[in-house]
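Last lecture ended with a question: if I hand you only a sequence, what can you say about the shape of the protein? Today we answer it with a concrete record. The protein is Type II secretion system protein GspF domain-containing protein. Below, first the input exactly as provided, then the predicted structure, then a couple of comments.
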Amino acid sequence: MGPECAALVCAGAVAVAWVAGGGRGREVRRARELLGTRGGVPWAVRTWRLVRGRWRERWEWWVPAVGAVFAVLGASVVPLVIGVAGMPLAARARQGREERRVRERRADAVISLCAVLAGEVRAGRQPGEALIAAVREEREARTGGGGSGAGGGAVVAAARFGGDVPGALREAAREPGAEGLSGLAACWRVAVDRGAGLAAGLERLADALRAERDQRADLRAQLAGSRSTAVMLAGLPVLGLLLGSVLGARPLRVLLHTGAGFGCLLVGGVLEGAGLWWALRIVRGAEER
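The predicted structure:
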């Protein structure tokens, strides 16, 4: 019996013991200890998940890592220096994406607050009590989802103690993504001063904010192709360098160890960065408009 057959027999025996013992036998527990498992998940898998999560949160560290790889392949420190210099730009891009997610979650919270507040008012509650209950409910929902809520302690305090609720709402509307609270402040002032229907105004406001959000999402989906194309075209030179290295042309040696090659690398890098910045700027301008 060869080693392959022996390995198959051992694997089959372990599988039979697992099924027969329901995963609770002494042999299975011993196997878990030997494999370094805890709760059915090996320690190596847990470590990999932790590292992967950290790298996803701080993915700008991939930039110097890639630079280090090219530094080893090209036997030069220049790619590593470029990677370290590009790390702040990657960190800024990551922070911009995180800020956009926070704005989107806060805009969703404003829509949810308007809808819940309209329901509370229609249920017969007074506007102040309805606002307190709506803010509390929306905050609990957002706490469970890890998002950023709308409003704040100032709004709740103003509603509870008879303060300037529209002023507190307008102050909270200054946060990115919470601009819809200014519409809520206008509805509140009109309803309190003139006796207009607060629930109807809130429902119309929620519908308008929801339509605006859907329009932004549709526009972003349409522009996703342009953004992806720009990024893909920016990565083609790197792919060309890798293909040249595989074919034995040694382009990294020419770019990093000759004067003409280093000049081409410098000029090409500047033009590449300028083109990518310009293309993404056009896309961002379209999104903002």
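Comments.
1. Residues 63 and 86 are 7 Å apart (CA to CA).
2. DSSP finds twelve helices and two strands in the chain.
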